[in-house]
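**User:** Everyone, produce a chain:

**Assistant:**
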Amino acid sequence: MAKKQAADAATSPEKPAPAEATAAEGKKAKEPKAKAPREKTTPAAPGAEAPSTAAAPKAPAAGDGAAAAPAAPAAPGEPTKKRGKRPGIAPPRGKKLKNHLKNQRQRLSKEGPAPLKRALGLLKQMKRSKFDETVEVHMSLGVDTTQSDQLVRGTVSLPHGIGKTVRVLVFCQGDNVAKAKGAGADHAGSDDLIKQIQGGWTDFDVALATQDMMGQVSRLGKVLGPRGLMPTPKAGTVVPATGDVAAAVREFKAGKVEYRTDKGGNVHAGVGKLSFEDDQLADNITTFVEQVRSAKPTGVKGNYVKSITVTSTMGPGIPVTIVSVCEEWIKPTGGNPWA
């Protein structure tokens, strides 16, 4: 028995050794998990290893929350995108501008349709921009745009010009090149100009062409057509074989305006600047209206000229009555001119 007890006593201190070894192995195995979170830089105490290991599985959850935190400001960012600029929608107007436009509408509603010079005076009084605005005339015609014989199109030379420099290009050859440049054309030539335009160059306002050059110029229809620069006989930009190239260049340099009806049966044109005298603007507008009246199609029934409105680049539209120009009485639309 003594031998057995001695043997048991000898073996009893050796039994905890494997338990300590397994505990030490477990601690070593758990230490990499405790080191996984980067937030803890100081080593943990031996007695506190168990709680740290227990909390170790929760560390990735905190890390996930930290990673998702930057996504939170994205939700308030979505409405800001909706408030941004969108094509076709004007930015919101300020309070000062709204009050200014409201006062203009009230004043124009009291004035009603005015004579031409009175309308020009109101237009200059209501100027609010710092640059020299362009004065425009808009005519509503009683034509049916679906009928090809009722389309109104042409050109008119204004007596006082339009107030800006017009860059004229002429497609011509031979002696006409020197004549065109002598009359003030900015560019004149044939093959060299055609190659430049095919490459995308369109640094000009009006394109003229002689009759013998139209066979070559027709190749530029895809480039000049969408920009409204293609020479056409109806617009007066094609010089006939018996025509004078120099005279055509002088007319367009002096302020020859092209007009045509849009889908709504309206005609628009710039007739000068606000810096012009009232008499100069009145002469230009009268000349333009007379030219449009003379181009009345034969198939039009009823009133040919429905209304005439004068406006500027940043100004309101003011309806006018020009009895001295139109033989028939022009009945303005009346009501609110801003509608």
About this structure: Confidence is low (pLDDT under 50) at residues 13-24, 44-72, 324-339. The beta strands are 134-141, 153-157, 168-171, 187-189, 206-210, 238-239, 256-260, 266-273, 305-312, 318-320.
